[in-house]
Amino acid sequence: VILDVTKTESISAAAQWVKERVGDRGLWGLVNNAGISVPTAPNEWLTRRDFMKILDVNLLGLLEVTLSLLSLVRKARGRVVNVSSIMGRLSLFGGGYCISKYGVEAFSDSLRRELSYFGVKVAMIEPGYF
Predict the structure, then answer these.
(1) Distance between CA atoms of 88 and 47, rounded to whole angstroms?
(2) Is residue 130 part of a domain?
(3) Position 1 in a domain
(4) Annotation says 97 is catalytic
(5) What CATH number is associated with residue 72?
(6) For position 130, what pLDDT does the model report?
(7) How many structural domains does the chain have?
(8) Any bridge partners for residue 32, and if so which?
(9) One of this protein's Pfam families, by short name (predicted)?
């Protein structure tokens, strides 16, 4: 399935596609891996639009995809895996990338606490430079 995480209609279509295939079993796993890192520059060189471009993919897209499939994950007592970054703990450069990854960390932490009561696991992967 082709999915553009910046477009609500694309996310809705993908969620419907998944629902039709998993049925009453629910969805055992959701991996959120979409991400971009540019533009990256000193903050004062960037515009609001530069920040939003990254936030739309790395954070807001992840939120919307997760929320659209969460009931299916809960039904299966599945798991959500969010790909963050070491930059979600330490900001080494300006722009929206580090901000978006801090947001992924916070969302994942709160989601993990909320869903633990339902037997759902939430994990983060924090790749560094490799």
Answers:
(1) 21
(2) no
(3) no
(4) yes
(5) 3.40.50.720
(6) 66
(7) 1
(8) 82
(9) adh_short
Q: Which pLDDT score is estimated for 128?
A: 82
> Which candidate in 97, 102, 117, 129 is catalytic?
97
Structural domain includes residue 114: yes
Report whether 127 contacts 83 (CB < 8 A): yes
Average pLDDT, consecutive stretches of 10 residues, N- to C-terminus, the chain (130 residues): 95 97 96 94 96 97 98 98 92 93 97 97 89
Render the chain in DSSP notation, one character per residue: ----TT-HHHHHHHHHHHHHHHGGG--SEEEE------S-S-GGG--HHHHHHHHIIIIIIHHHHHHHHHHHHHHHT-EEEEE--GGGT---S-SHHHHHHHHHHHHHHHHHHHHGGGT-EEEEE-----
Closest CA to 124 of 94, 91, 79, 92: 79
Q: Who's near 35: CB < 8 A, 6+ residues apart?
A: 57, 58, 83, 85, 100
What's the distance, CA 43 to chain centroid? 23
Taking alpha carbons only, the member of 128, 26, 127 closest to residue 79 is 26
Report the pLDDT value the prediction gives residue 88, as an integer from 0 to 100.
87
Residue 52, token pair as written in the block:
């939003």
Q: Environment class of residue 42 by beta-carbon count within 10 Å: exposed (0-12), middle (13-18) or buried (19+)?
A: exposed
